[in-house]
Amino acid sequence: MELKPVKSINLEGVSCPMNFVMTKVAIAEILTGEILEVILDEGEALLNVPMSMKEEGHAVLNVKKDQNLFHVFFRKGED
Prior knowledge:
Distance between the termini: 26 Å
Strand content: 25-35%
Helix content: 25-40%
Strand order of the largest sheet: 1-2-4-3
Number of helices: 2
Radius of gyration: 11 Å
């Protein structure tokens, strides 16, 4: 199944906690059940952003590696 995000943001080089804040703002702009793609660096960002989004009630659908970046797909949970 191919994931079709309605919104995509590139947070390459953005440090914590700003990458989480920017992800939270982006997911607020889409509808419940829609998919957000977030491009993150390896390391702290890749660990913290998905964990924090799960705590906020959103689902991590997939993580795809593309060279040194990771494409993380979230499904927006209930508001």
